[in-house]
Structure formats: C-alpha cells, structure tokens
Design goal:
With 215 residues, the protein is mainly alpha-helical. The chain contains ten helices and no strands. The protein has helices spanning 12-15, 18-29, 43-57, 66-73, 85-93, 97-108, 116-133, 136-148, 156-178, 199-205. Helix 2 runs parallel beside helix 6. 17% of the residues are buried. It is 56% helix and 0% strand. The model has no long low-confidence stretch (mean pLDDT 89).
Length: 215
C-alpha cells in the first residue's frame, strides 16, 4: 500500500484543484476527520477510504463481507486469487491525475443533488436484499445504474469493470479447462456479474451453462 502515498514532499493539496480540496475537507469533516490527516494520500486511495467510511457509517463493514466469511471457513483448502493485490494497485496507479481526481469526486459526492449519506445507506441495504433474495432482473438494473455514476470518468468503467471482468472470465475458464476435474468455489464482487460485459454473459457466450441457484 506504500504506492498509495505521495513522497518527495508532494501533498494532496498540490495535485487537487482548490474546489475539490475544499469539498474533500467538508466530506471528511462529516466523519470527524481532518483533511490534513490525509495530506500524503493519493486521490485514488483516498476515494477508497471515503467509500469505506461511507459503508461503515451505514453499518456495513468489510470484515463482515462474504470474502472474509468464506476465508474463515476455508480450512485447509487452497486459496487462489483471481487478481492479485498488486494488480489492483497497478490499475489505480495507471489512472491519470485527472481521472484520479474525478474518481475522488465521485466518492465525495456520489449522488449529486441528493443527501449522500441516506442514499448510500439505502443502496447498500437494497444491494444486500437483492443478493439475498436472488432477484436477478432487479439486481442487474440496480448494478448497471451504480456503474453509470462513474461512466463520465474517461476510461474508468472500461478498466475498472469491463477489463477486470474479462480477465476474471479467462481465469474461471482456465479452472474449467485445466482444473483436472476439481470443483472451484469462486467469489467475485457483485458488480462484475451483470451487464453486457459481465461475467454471466461472458461465460455464456463462451459456451458454458450458467445457472442461478437462489431466488
């Protein structure tokens, strides 16, 4: 995570516009944080931190996510990453300063013109309910609407969603074709399931049968 921080005296104020910096300060203060506490944090990492603060404020914590649950249940089973931590860091580091700032702005104000904290809590609760119920049709619409919130950021959705989903599909195909008959239990982020370039469609187009077992 060292790559998520500035070095050589560069600070957040040096790379953000005055307007973005002021909006960031206001957003952080709502969570009891001072913007100066993050002066050496790069915009992309700060956007992720903000998203975590927002989720925690809505009573959703990563420690209770399905990844952590199944890791705790894995026992002696082999754990294989679909994409490594280093790959994810490279992804964010590869975005230009302009894209990183827009990504940060989308975390500061994800729903322009609305009460963000209330909407975030409502959307997280809805996503949770859709996941539990298995309402695929509504889930797809909801998921694609969330992706639309960052569609204005040049190249962001293509790299963050589409390219990653394509890479994951290739890895899953390799399990199916080179796995020596083993059974693989694969966990992915919900946003990679739906859409024209989501995993469900990609695997079906590759000739695989994809079945929903809940809902």
């Amino acid at each position: 995570m060292e790559r998520g921080f500035f070095h050589d005296g560069i600070t957040l104020a040096d790379v953000l516009s005055d307007t973005t910096y002021r909006r960031l300060a206001g957003r952080l203060s709502a969570y009891g944080h001072a913007v100066t506490d993050y002066q050496f944090v790069k915009p992309w990492l700060l956007a992720l931190i903000l998203s975590t603060l927002e989720a925690t404020d809505a009573s959703f914590e990563a420690i209770h996510g399905i990844e952590m649950y199944f890791l705790a249940q894995s026992g002696e089973k082999q754990i294989i990453e679909l994409e490594g931590f280093s790959y994810q860091i490279d992804l964010f580091e590869g975005f230009s300063g302009e894209v990183q700032e827009q990504f940060l702005l989308s975390a500061i104000d994800p729903y322009p013109g609305e009460a963000d904290s209330e909407r975030i809590a409502e959307d997280l609760e809805l996503l949770h309910e859709l996941w539990i119920s298995g309402n695929w049709e509504v889930f797809q619409t909801f998921s694609e609407n969330l992706k639309a919130l960052t569609a204005h950021i040049p190249g962001y959705n293509e790299r963050f969603w589409n390219e990653r989903s394509q890479n994951m599909a290739r890895r899953i195909e390799s399990f199916l074709t080179e796995g020596d008959g083993k059974t693989y239990f694969v966990i992915i982020g919900a946003g990679h399931l739906s859409g024209e370039r989501g995993l469900v469609k990609l695997l079906r187009e590759a000739g695989y049968r994809v079945e929903q077992i809940t809902g």
